[in-house]
């Protein structure tokens, strides 16, 4: 065959026409209460007209490196008008006929979406693979040039996405043999070798980790049973990555990593940057070191020119090791990415777990805490059968009946193809759920959604709901503010409230940042400016983010309000979703790796913020998805955990844990604490599952492709010897969940320390994962709380208790003079009690 130039075609799957009709923007106008107030006004305040309208602006998707994902997501449009599916589950017998009908309507709709997935879904469907297989079969035998290479290369990416690693490897091996060994063809050879290395590494993960789960599987640095027993795939990956490095090391040496260049999401290979190949070289370098680690060969066996420094895989702070006990407890459900919520769903006082997955046939699952160190799945008994999908979930008692309800979010990342319904699941108090989405007025229009937040913005005592939707070039999807009408229904008031956003919303969180007693709203928009909507108290909001300097990062994802230094002022963390493995390698080598960093904005009082990201040691490249915060060591200061990674298989990076250094900064304790899981981390929950006073960490695991499933993780806290208190708040005039309440614990008696205050704000934590609404608060060495204050959101009244003993769980009801002790017995996880 004559030499031919092999052009690198880094293309997403061919887009299908999106012929789904545009849905009207709006919502059912639910019945109003007989209170003579404006639709969006607090009963206590007069209504003014908003100072500005909700004019739509185009979303500037400026990150070229992530544009490929959004291009792929535009590939399909779902026709939701299909035949009604057979009944899959029965709601609770106690629900009304109308609610039962709504539940069945949701099941039918989700079944229709699932049935259409193979032919439409850009991530989960196999339609593109079928097209390429047919195209390959139709090529004449004489076609052994660039066109055959193109088809084989693209098909290999599709096969790998679907979990057919062996077939992907066969295609790439045959494709590599087509390319003549010339300098002109070197880019094609390097790209094929790189992709071959990624496919072999994924096969190694499947054979050694995914199919044989255990406590040390895929946790960096790999050691003990984490070293692969079947080393053949990793050895072949090493050979492929070494070939790439030898080919590109001359052009890559001394280069500066560029932030430009698109990803091939199908094959999982980064495109070379400019003409220097730096990006591909650094990505191969990172994966080579990981591959050597899987066979126990790091650092000694890694050739010195390609060896990352050993300190790359060492923590900057100390932390005892947490053990992943999910396989022991049967909590390691094997699935794709999704959400996780830890809370007491059946009212027995113990924390249960609900997980979801974004697969359109992915079943929500409910695990009941047996109060003896074990969990039992009761998905069917909970009425969840047939409730498929859901990349994220948020919990709250929306109807003030004393139990924890769930909102499931669907359609994220799919743009026009993501007009899937969200689900509002009403709890009957015993852990059985009924889908009341349509009855509640939340199901009239469907937009792609990934984030939502519960908060009482009008201080009327019931929880309102903000749903952050994803507007894109293919779909106008305004975000929605659903005012709770107090009768189980909601009204969308986002327009008059001026919070429609029109961005690609990836996080929405409530918090009273200016201390005026009103819940304000922060929205993280991926690819655009973030918004901080100040609540005026007059039924509308004003975006203060530009004035306050909190619009960045542009490529943002999860976010949350918290008090990082216990000064009583809310701080704001906004994580970046911009870095990949080449940035990690560049940083390890001390080379420039320009990318946006996450931001920590410290509340300065008076509604002002200061960017303290650098001072707090948070400038490392991040690609955060699922995340949350909690207090690992019970010192009273919040720590946080980031689930990291992108959909492509090459994005093999550890999830990251940061430990708070008494409000003065953070240390990376990922490797010391055993948190460096290499699989893609999503919904995170910090929760005391065994009632021993310290917080364990649950994480829903798995990627966005059918072939990228993995088991969930539960990291058991080894204990730090500090004191604690667990507080369950119950609102009366405030919302019953007490979301938005502020807790202040004044403690003294710690060695070398005087009196100090510890603050917590009641919510479920970060924007991607649900902590329990009851609060477990670390007290350090203090054995008593001198003064415990609860600032209730609806009334602004502070309730005070003096001389409260530590190391117990208590129940505080708004307005009652005394608290009660909750009879929660501790036990050992994985045992039958102690």
Walk me through this protein's architecture.
The protein has 834 residues and is α+β, with helices and mostly antiparallel strands. Among the domains are: 127-313, Serine Threonine Protein Phosphatase 5, Tetratricopeptide repeat, CATH 1.25.40; 724-821, Immunoglobulin-like, CATH 2.60.40.1110. The chain contains 13 helices and 42 strands. The strands form twelve sheets. It has a four-stranded antiparallel beta sheet, with no helix packed on it. Strands 6-7-8-9 form a four-stranded antiparallel beta sheet, with no helix packed on it. Strand 31 and strand 32 form a beta hairpin. Helix 3 runs antiparallel to helix 4. It starts with 63 loop residues before the first helix and ends in a 13-residue tail after the last strand. 60% of the residues are buried.
